[in-house]
Give the backbone structure.
Amino acid sequence: MPAQVVVAWLRATESWIVPVFGTRKLERFEENLGALNVSITTEVMREIKKRSAEIAVQGERYPHRYLNFRVVVLSILKSRKSKPAKKGWKRPLLR
């Protein structure tokens, strides 16, 4: 399954990476857990790195409107960290 290969690749990339499965369906979660049975050899990782280096990345990572939103949210969060929290105040969840 492609999802299992991607999760296995993430795990093989760095030892500190822990994939977090975002799914609402139990069967997809179980499918993703199957990545624990997929191993990627060092030779295959080298080939993946070699071929991916040949691909030219184009475009922006995020659309421009998301970048502006991200800057605003980060500045709000940064300003909140510098102020003492009010008793009983909880930080609202960002969605």
Q: What stands out?
A: The chain has a mean pLDDT of 78. DSSP finds four helices and no strands in the chain.
